[in-house]
Design the sequence.
C-alpha cells in the first residue's frame, strides 16, 4: 500500500487559494510562559511550529525541546545512521539559534527512528515527567499519516498540559476541505514578518533534508518547504479533558 506521504501532493498554490485557511481563529499565545516542544525527528518542530517557538523565545518563555529520535533513518543505508544522527542533531542546534531559542533546554530520548509506534506507552510515561509544570505542549498531529508523528502526538495527549498539535505531512497529502481533517477545531498563529523570516532561515539549517538522497530527491522538496513558509502556522488544540 502506498503511503499518502509518497503519493503526489497538494501544491502550495492550492492551499494559498483556500480562503478558509486565512480565516481560522487566532490562538492567544500571550498567556504562555513556558512550553515543552516534542519532535519525533529533527526538523519536525521547526517546520510545524518554528514561528511559534521563535515568538515564545522572544517573549522570554521557558522552552524545553524533547527530541524523541535523532532522525537516523531518513537516508536508508547512507550515510551511516550514527553519522546522520550527529548531522541532524547539529542542524537542530543551528536552527534553534536562528529562531532565537538557543537557550532552550534540549532533551534527547534517542528512541529508534521509524520505530515509535511500539514505544508509545514508554514515550507517554517519560513525557509525563518532562512536561510537568509547563503551560503548553507542542507536538506532531495525531492524524499526520506518519506513524512516528502520530505516536508522539498521542503520547503528548496523555502527558498533562494542554496540547497544540502541529501538522507536517498533512499539508502534502491533504487538500482544502478534506473531511479527514477537523478544520472546525483548527487555530492559527500569525507570524510577524521578522518571525517568519527567522523561520525560513531556520528551515535552511536542515541541509541533510534539503539535499538530494542517493537515487532520489530530498526529503524536503521546494514544494514541501513552501507549505511551511506562510504568514501563519496552524495547530489543532487538545485540552486535558479530550
Sequence:
Amino acid at each position: 500500500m502506498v503511503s499518502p506521504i509518497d503519493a503526489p501532493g497538494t501544491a502550495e498554490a492550492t492551499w494559498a487559494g483556500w480562503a478558509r485557511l486565512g480565516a481560522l481563529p487566532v490562538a492567544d499565545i500571550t498567556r504562555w510562559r513556558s512550553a515543552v516542544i516534542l519532535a519525533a525527528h529533527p526538523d519536525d518542530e521547526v517546520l510545524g511550529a518554528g514561528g511559534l517557538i521563535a515568538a515564545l523565545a522572544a517573549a522570554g518563555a521557558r522552552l524545553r525541546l524533547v527530541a524523541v529520535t535523532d532522525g537516523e533513518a531518513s537516508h536508508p543505508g547512507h550515510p551511516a545512521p550514527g553519522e546522520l544522527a550527529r548531522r541532524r542533531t547539529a542542524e537542530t542546534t543551528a536552527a534553534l539559534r536562528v529562531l532565537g531559542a538557543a537557550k532552550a533546554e534540549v532533551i534527547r530520548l534517542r528512541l529508534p527512528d521509524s520505530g515509535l509506534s511500539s514505544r508509545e506507552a514508554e514515550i507517554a510515561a517519560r513525557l509525563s515527567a518532562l512536561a510537568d509544570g509547563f503551560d503548553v505542549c507542542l507536538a506532531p498531529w495525531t492524524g499526520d499519516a506518519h506513524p512516528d508523528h502520530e505516536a508522539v502526538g498521542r503520547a503528548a495527549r496523555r502527558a498533562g498540559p494542554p496540547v497544540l498539535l502541529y501538522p507536517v505531512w498533512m499539508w502534502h497529502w491533504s487538500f482544502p476541505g478534506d473531511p479527514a481533517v477537523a478544520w472546525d477545531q483548527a487555530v492559527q498563529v500569525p507570524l510577524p514578518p521578522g518571525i517568519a523570516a527567522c523561520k525560513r532561515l531556520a528551515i535552511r539549517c536542515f541541509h541533510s533534508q534539503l539535499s538530494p538522497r542517493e537515487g532520489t530527491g530530498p526529503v524536503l522538496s521546494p514544494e514541501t518547504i513552501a507549505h511551511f513558509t506562510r504568514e501563519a502556522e496552524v495547530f489543532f488544540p487538545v485540552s486535558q479533558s479530550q
About this structure: Residues 26-173+184-238 form a domain with the Rossmann fold fold (CATH 3.40.50.10320). The chain has one domain: 26-173+184-238.
